[in-house]
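Bit of a strange request maybe. I'm writing a small parser for structure token strings and I need a real example to test against, not something I typed by hand. Could someone generate the tokens for this chain?
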Amino acid sequence: MSYSMVIDLKRCVGCSGCVTNCKASNGTSPEMARSWVDRSLEGKYPDARRSIVPKLCNQCDNPPCILVCPVEDTTFKDDSGVVLIDKELCIGCQSCISACPYGARKYRADAMGYFGSELTQYEEVAYQNMPENTVDKCDFCMGRTPEGQVPEPACVRSCVAGARFFGTTEEMKGFIDSSGRDSYRLLENMQTEPNVIYLSDFVNTV
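Reply from user aminoacidic:
Good idea to test on real output. This should exercise your parser:
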């Protein structure tokens, strides 16, 4: 069984609720963000359009990050098809960061928190999964999911606009087909075969 995520760009309002809830739920450190929102303006008046594109790790079926990792089994795909990092093996070389075309990986250089070396009670607990000199990224909240249960990504659960949908790859394909709308994936020409799909009524070239 593999998982996919669908993001409806007509519903997304760019509120960044997904970003803040992801940070709070996964306890990412100051320099790290597993989820973020790209905003840009396209065209000129009177045909200008605001583009809002939420982004995260695309959980590629053909992930270049695995190919470049010098330490075997550090970055791998598990049975769910999600790309994971074994931080006990990660040596912090950052080769995977350079290889990822989506900018989805972040490096944790030190053990500092938001207020310096003196961590808050929350940070002392949350950062146990954020060791220094390792790389981090989105894992579809598999790290927060009890064994045998279906993951519930924090970004999906917290989306106030109901713009994110998550399920098995088959379920998401059926959802897209039934919507009758156009869909696309980021950087499809790179043949990474991403599992994050964007739903839109217009052709987007992001």
